[in-house]
What does this fold into?
Amino acid sequence: ACEECGEWEKALLLLSVMLHNLMELDAISFNAAVRACVKGSKWEKALELVSVMVRSELRLDIITCSAGISACEKGGEWVKAIQLLRFMVQGKIELATITFNAAISACEKGGEWAKALHLLSLMVYSKIELATTTFNATIGACEKSSVWEKPLQILCSMAQGKVEPNAVTFKAAIVACEKGCNREEAL
It folds into this structure.
């Protein structure tokens, strides 16, 4: 219930009460608290909880890791997002589109276009479903770094992969071309 409204303080209080009363803390309780912290824009707290889970040897799952990566994205912590994604691969935790999208968005916020492109190619290699939002975040990372050639290549690859671009896709590609001073390509 606390998770749905982003009531991170209440979620942390309930975890604390459980711990104080020597109740067994499980991944479900932590996952809910992590997601509440993410929704409450308390990404640092969310990452602290993920660290506590690791130290407590609780099994992290796709829910935990996706929420943790989403927290990294909100905080612009692209390095931590990639570390958590790497942890998922090493721990053989299921990978999903939403998880990669959050990691790519973290790279976008950090201006790490090459890392975003690498994650996109890793998704293709791992046969993770690609979505318009995946491409939008990758193009956005290139646009923020004034790399204009890559968004055009990404647009072409979307057509090959049968993923529909939307207005956000085209706008980001146009802005990337503009920032790259290639107005002919933008038009």
Residues 111 and 145 are 6 Å apart (CA to CA).
